[in-house]
Write a structure and sequence with these properties.
Shape: flat
Protein name: Tetratricopeptide-like helical
Pfam family, one: NatB_MDM20
Number of helices: 43
Structural class: mainly alpha
Radius of gyration: 33 Å
Low-confidence stretches: none
Largest sheet: none
InterPro entries: NAA25_NatB_aux_su
Strand content: under 5%
Length: 921
């Protein structure tokens, strides 16, 4: 006979798509063999897949009891792992997860450990730890390390792992929980004893002899608020920063500085930083060679962090700041162009001598203007200047950088001039241009664009990439005037050029993606995303740039001759999102396997960090957003069958927002309109949006599924409805103009769907089906009238596609609802029999399709017009110009390139319009 787990897998996999049938079959078999562990576990998994989590959880407990009472032999490890996985999944779904597996699961593991021969026990230990880490059942992991401590009393790593897990479990229990309080106390006392043993030089393995052990001490002392005690440890000669344990590691030095700041011991912090900087100065004064390295013991002092804390702490202490001034002068005499010391001098002036800040900013610019970091280093200090000083500084920067006169094309000189010119342009943009935007100031903005193009054109001719930021500044300035379509089109030509000649410039690629997205160039947007080459965690932080609202922009695969050989995930949003959604599982699995693969070198000092990482991944906003968008894309592209067995994740699980909105640097003034308002289409997706689309998704699931919505999914549905009701004030802030227009349509669908297809007794169900269906009919009629009178744009942009797909999506949902309502109206046993206004339902179904067809016919007409004159429209927008920006762009790009880009843009527009025509109504 095959092993028990293989029998289980075979049974569960056999009913993979039909867990309801699997449940019936196992119940029938269990009536003849009620203690069969395989059947009991299969029944549990089927219950869990059907969303009956409470029953599944009770079944897990029953299995544990049954195994204990019916057999002396331990369960196979894979079966225990499956029970533990199901238990964790059910607790998560029910909202009862608290990182405690409980006595019954612990009992199953104890039986395995007791009955496993020594030559196989290592594998059992590793698997037990791996699964405990994966499920975050800290009591199970504690059980393991308590046993390992007992078996290996001379190996301290098992004791420290147990300590770390005690802290982890305590943090996840209520603050007033007695067990949690005791675990915290045990963790602290264990480490305190180890510290005392080390200082007393006791002959015991439980001492602090490595950086990993000191790291654990620091972590737990900080978490429990023992700052004073930790400070004493870090100052200790035996295990402190300067000992053979601490080894002057910057991690512990920063920990000490942070403690001093929290305790507001400013004089002590100032003395620490000043002393370190003084030693650094002495070392530099004694150095005979400019290339001589700073010794390891002082390397940490050569850092902005130390300079900053030295100046800030001195200003907050009662001591005079003359020593800091002296240190700055000494160091800048030794290293005139040292960036950190230069920034420190700016900060010192800002805090202690405001009147001298302007001159200090000028001096810094003169020294560092050809550094790529010059603008960022000056930024905060320039904003502190008076208005007159800012105007004067813009002029000074332009003059000092010799902005009007490019040098010869000698590469080194040309690169330095370009960097200085870019620094000057960035300052001008922040202090003047970014605050502009009125029609009266458009000429100033266009003149600024011309200056940027002049610098960029020169840098391209050298060639050097030091001028790439000039083109980025030009694009940002053009975005200020984005309401005029011609400026956005010019920005597209420029970003396409930057992206082409500086393909390794990720900022250029990002700009190409975002500007193309605004203009509705779907294929170019998706191509730019492919060329970003996202890796691992970037799917969590950057994939939102493309996939936010992708369903209402370009849900279909790009089908162009140039993409025939391209992998699906690089041209099809559905495949791309499916790939991106694999990352969280892979990241957690890889990290878990690494943490548990070698218990001889257990990473006890990383357990808390691992748990924090795992939580950030599991509660990330991005995967929940991606799941919703993937399902929307599936429904629009006739792939609904791929999502039928999928359960939605609760929107309130999105507690960690790891999205990066600042990957394109902003040079905006704080008072100016933020860059994300300029470059991202629509407001940022938020928890309100997640709740809204969770509700809409589940309404569609109810309308299109033959089986009942599982209890856990019903809970998510009603939670989303409640959230939307309680947070209605967020609607106008967080939805686009066109999402607000279809919002009513989804609201009208909610009560009739719940009444007819879910639960007529629910407070959310319709109280008058005839009235509510009549309102639905009126909404469809008003939508058709709105599109009938709508004028076609000269060129479609992102908003055009967004609005059309939103309505097509809604009308497809109405079609499914009408089919379900008509089917129910024929069932005499159904509670809604005789209450459904069939004629109104049929008219809604017909009018939805008519309106959808109208939208498609308008898109088809626009496509036909652009096929004839699209090239002239695009070139007209490029060349329509009073200030010569278009002329300067054409000179930069050259005629052949302009022609190629125009063809590429038009091809992308036509391909995107074709997507609207592919929706099946």
């Amino acid at each position: 006979m095959p092993p028990t787990f293989e029998q289980y897998e075979s049974l569960v996999d056999g009913y993979g798509k039909h867990p309801d049938q699997g449940l019936k079959a196992t119940k029938k078999k269990l009536s003849k063999d009620p203690n069969n562990a395989v059947l009991l576990l299969a029944q549990t998994r089927f219950l869990q897949r059907l969303g009956r989590d409470e029953e599944a959880l009770n079944s897990c407990n029953s299995i544990c009891d049954s195994v204990k009472s019916s057999s002396k032999d331990a369960l196979e490890i894979p079966l225990i792992v499956e029970i533990q996985d199901i238990t964790a999944e059910c607790q998560e779904a029910l909202g009862t997860f608290c990182h405690v597996g409980g006595a019954k699961l612990s009992g199953l593991w104890k039986d395995v450990l007791d009955q496993t021969p020594k030559y196989r026990i290592k594998k059992v230990y590793e698997e037990m730890y791996r699964v405990a880490l994966s499920n975050e059942y800290w009591d199970i992991a504690q059980q393991l390390f308590a046993r390992l401590q007992k078996e290996n009393p001379k190996l301290s790593q098992y004791h420290y792992a147990w300590v770390a897990l005690s802290q982890m479990q305590a943090e996840n229990l209520p603050t007033d929980d007695r067990m949690g309080q005791n675990l915290k106390l045990l963790a602290f006392r264990s480490l305190k004893a180890a510290v005392e043993n080390t200082i007393a030089k006791k002959d015991t393995p439980r001492t602090i002899t490595s950086a990993s052990e000191l790291r654990l001490v620091a972590e737990i002392y900080r978490k429990q608020g023992f700052d004073e005690e930790l400070l004493g440890i870090l100052n200790s000669d035996d295990i402190g920063i300067e000992s053979s344990v601490g080894k002057n590691d910057v991690e512990f030095i920063r920990a000490k500085i942070d403690i001093l700041k929290r305790l507001e011991r400013w004089e002590e912090l100032a003395s620490l930083c000043a002393s370190s900087l003084d030693k650094l100065c002495q070392q530099q004064e004694q150095t005979t060679s400019a290339a001589e390295d700073i010794p390891t013991s002082l390397a940490w002092a050569d850092d902005w962090y130390i300079w900053e804390n030295a100046i800030v702490s001195r200003s907050k202490s009662r001591l005079a700041g003359s020593d800091i001034n002296s240190l700055l002068k000494r160091y800048l005499t030794l290293k005139t162009k040292n960036r950190n010391a230069g920034r420190a001098s700016l900060l010192n002036q800002s805090i202690n001598n405001k009147s001298g800040l302007f001159n200090e900013c000028k001096r810094f610019f003169e020294l560092h203007k050809s550094s790529r970091s010059c603008f960022e280093d000056l930024r905060q200090f320039l904003l502190e200047l008076s208005e007159d000083e800012r105007v004067a500084f813009v002029s000074h920067a332009a003059a000092t950088s010799n902005l009007a006169e490019p040098p010869t094309t000698e590469t080194e000189k040309a690169s330095k001039w370009t960097l200085a010119a870019v620094s000057s342009l960035k300052i001008s943009y922040m202090l003047h241009i970014s605050k502009s935007g009125d029609t009266d100031q458009s000429n100033e903005i266009k003149n600024f664009v011309l200056s940027c193009l002049k610098v960029y054109t020169f840098s391209v001719s050298v060639p050097t990439d030091s001028g790439d930021d000039a083109s980025i500044l030009a694009v940002m300035a053009l975005l200020k005037l984005r309401e005029d379509r011609k400026n956005l089109v010019k920005a597209a030509y420029l970003t396409e050029y930057l992206h082409a000649i500086s393909s390794d410039n990720s900022l250029g690629t990002l700009l190409s993606l975002l500007v193309s997205q605004l203009l509705g160039y779907g294929s170019i947007t998706i191509s730019a995303f492919q060329q970003l080459g996202l890796r691992e965690v970037q799917f969590d932080t950057l994939s939102h740039l493309l996939y936010s609202r992708i369903s209402t922009f370009h849900p279909y695969s790009v089908e162009l001759r140039s993409t025939l050989s391209t992998d699906d995930r690089y041209k099809d949003p559905f495949s791309g999102i499916s790939f991106a959604l694999q990352w969280p599982r892979k990241a957690i699995s890889t990290t878990t396997n690494f943490m548990s693969k070698d218990l001889k070198n257990v990473y006890f000092d990383k357990i808390i960090e691992f748990s924090a990482f795992k939580e950030r991944v599991e509660t990330s906003f991005t995967p929940i957003l991606l799941q919703l968008e993937r399902r929307r894309v599936a429904r629009l592209t006739y792939r609904s069958s791929t999502i039928m067995e999928e359960s939605l994740v609760h929107f309130d699980r999105a507690k960690s927002d790891n999205r990066d909105f600042y990957s394109v640097p902003s040079f905006e003034h704080p008072a100016a309109e933020s860059l994300d308002r300029l470059i991202f289409p629509g407001p940022r997706l938020s928890t309100y949006w997640l709740a809204w689309w969770t509700r809409n998704d589940l309404l569609q699931t109810i309308a299109s599924s033959k089986s009942a919505l599982p209890p856990t999914q019903q809970r998510i549905l009603f939670d989303s409805i409640q959230f939307l009701k309680e947070n209605a004030s967020l609607k106008a802030q967080q939805l686009t103009e066109h999402e607000l227009k279809v919002f009513e349509g989804w609201e009208l669908m909610q009560p009739v769907t719940i009444h007819i297809l879910l639960d007529a007794k629910s407070p959310q169900a319709s109280k008058d089906l005839k009235k509510d269906f009549s309102l639905l009919s009126d909404f469809v009629g008003a939508s058709r009238l709105a599109f009938t009178t709508l004028e076609a744009p000269v060129l479609p942009d992102w908003t055009y596609y967004h609005s059309r797909f939103l309505y097509l999506e809604l009308f497809k949902a109405y079609d499914k609802l009408c089919d379900g309502a008509i089917a129910v109206s024929k069932l005499k046993a159904n509670h809604a029999y005789g209450k459904i206004p069939v004629e109104v339902v049929l008219s809604i179904k017909k009018d939805s399709r008519v309106t959808g067809t109208l939208i498609q016919s308008q898109a088809k007409g626009l496509k036909q017009v652009l096929e004839k004159n699209g090239t002239s429209v695009l070139l007209g927008l490029l060349r329509e110009d009073e200030n010569g920006v278009g002329v300067a762009l054409e000179e930069l790009l050259r005629p052949d390139t302009v022609k190629a880009y125009t063809s590429k843009f038009l091809e992308s527009v036509l391909e995107s319009l074709d997507g609207i025509l592919k929706v099946k109504l």
